[in-house]
């Protein structure tokens, strides 16, 4: 995987350290996540709150000083906000003002109670085909949501996340995302992250400015590293 990312960066005229590898550990046990941390993969992602909370707690016991950062990349309901802020350092799937409000409220409560010691980083999930079934906010509504996040407090806007829709050329999808990111940065200079590209299309994403590739299958295979 390191070779693929490095080659993609070189082809795009970018430095390797401009692109972060986010290891998607969904369905894999805590020991596999701990082994990834041993190998230097300290950014780990989950897409289900219930599984993630238990796993993050288990990994913390296995590797208490690892410095792992956990990322929520799956669809998130507002009623899960309180739970998510207990384990996630970053939520990459914010797609509505109501969810942003819920996360901000839950983060403030967690800060006040000592469950957290830092604000929650968030990315706006962008829909690249305007299909509500896939999740994500429309590009045309991106500015309004970004302003809400910027002013609600206790959550920090870091950038955008998107998935290249099936049936659409990934190059076209990532070009659209790159343009949206450029417009966002004009008003929110710290929102520089572009989380895009997975096992099948990370090269195209890196060529169009991705700063974070989310890789599961190509990294872990069809079953866990340490699973029986």
TrEMBL record:
Pfam families: Ala_racemase_N. Residues 18-223 form the Alanine racemase N-terminal domain. Pyridoxal 5'-phosphate (PLP)-binding protein, which is involved in PLP homeostasis. InterPro entries: Ala_racemase_N, PLP-binding_barrel, PyrdxlP_homeostasis. The modification N6-(pyridoxal phosphate)lysine is found at residue 26. Belongs to the pyridoxal phosphate-binding protein YggS/PROSC family. This is Pyridoxal phosphate homeostasis protein. GO terms for molecular function: pyridoxal phosphate binding. It comes from Amycolatopsis umgeniensis. The lineage of its organism: Bacteria, Bacillati, Actinomycetota, Actinomycetes, Pseudonocardiales.
